[in-house]
Specification:
alpha/beta, 12 helices, 6-stranded parallel β-sheet, globular
Length: 333
């Protein structure tokens, strides 16, 4: 990074994506970033010069363009909504930085969890970084947060990375099938066809991280198991990376059963949103219960995410905020 008359400057190399896609028609993406972060952007082919008045600011803008390259590769295009979402996420992080914090404060967010065919996966918000740190340090991590905060995606990325690095021998992905009573029986098809819709988000996450043929092979060999929570009873999971998704819809009994499956050299992540419980009786949620039962056990980490960690369309964050405000108003808070 160069410094001239209190102006910092860095050259960002545009690789793996067409510069025209990154810059936008008429450089509209560059203008958006300039507007929100008060930097000067000078594009010359696949080289983008970033100029600003602090190292932290320049580092943040570099992160934005790295994210834009990743999304462009992942989705095969880069929409205006994508750019706005990336800007809003990074702007929230930049605004929350303490004065005088060094540029190295963003180094944690640069750590790659998993390299994929379309790029890489890393924590994109401070909350996600807390999750990543907790997963590295603890064998059981409970992540609670609203929709769109990347809970499932991040957990599956860590699981795939552990499998690739041979730290575990198999991945087990589980979800409660809330409608597993009479409603499930009315759905067409055999048992697998009936439960697959509940498990599809887990297949989707895997599909973005591993080739389709490799997923098929791993599923056939039992290296990856994607199952309804109820079918984990009686198993002991050794050398495994285990993920329970949508845990707010696990009953107290199911949650205890899941947590006691953990075997030698295994790690478990429990993901859920305690504001989206679909069980007949809200108080039966195992996710609500374990926050009290297990809170003082060493080796278990509880991480809470909020709307600032939403990595979907920026409107998702606004929707969550609106619902939070509505709930508080209704409760007279």
């Amino acid at each position: 990074m160069n410094k001239d008359n209190d102006v910092y400057e860095v050259l960002f190399e545009v690789n793996k994506v067409n510069p025209l896609v990154l810059y936008g028609v008429g450089d509209k993406n560059l203008k958006l970033v300039e507007k929100h972060f008060s930097v000067q952007l000078i594009a010359r082919g696949n080289q983008l010069k970033i100029r600003g008045d602090s190292e932290v600011l320049i580092g943040q803008v570099e992160n934005i363009f790295s994210e834009m390259v990743f999304i462009a590769n992942k989705n095969k295009h880069l929409s205006a909504e994508d750019v706005e979402t990336i800007i809003h996420i990074n702007q929230a992080e930049f605004d929350s930085e303490k004065p005088g914090q060094s540029a190295n404060s963003t180094d944690e967010l640069d750590e790659v969890i998993l390299f994929t065919k379309t790029g890489y996966i890393k924590a994109r918000t401070r909350g996600q970084q807390k999750v990543a740190t907790a997963i590295k340090r603890h064998d059981l991590v409970v992540v609670i947060g609203p929709a769109g905060t990347g809970k499932t995606y991040l957990a599956v990325a860590f699981a795939v990375a552990a499998l690739k690095e041979k730290r575990v021998k198999k991945i087990v992905l589980a979800r409660p099938a809330v409608e597993a009573g009479e409603s499930l029986g009315f759905l067409p098809g055999d048992f697998r066809e009936k439960i697959d819709p509940y498990l599809q988000p887990l297949y989707d996450a895997l599909g973005e991280m591993l080739p389709r043929e490799l997923i098929k092979k791993y599923l056939e060999q039992g290296i990856i198991k994607v199952i309804p929570l109820a079918y984990m009873r009686g198993r002991t999971l050794n050398n495994s990376f285990v993920i329970l998704d949508e845990a707010q819809n696990a009953t107290s009994t199911q949650m205890k059963m899941f947590l006691t499956r953990l075997g030698v050299n295994s790690k478990a992540i429990v993901n859920g949103d305690d504001t989206q419980i679909d069980l007949p009786e809200r108080e039966n949620s195992g996710l609500l219960e374990i926050q009290n039962v297990l809170k003082n056990i060493e080796g278990i980490s509880f991480i809470k995410l909020n709307q600032t960690d939403v990595v979907r369309h920026r409107l998702v964050r606004n929707i969550i905020q609106a619902y939070d405000k509505y709930t508080k108003d209704q409760n007279g808070e």
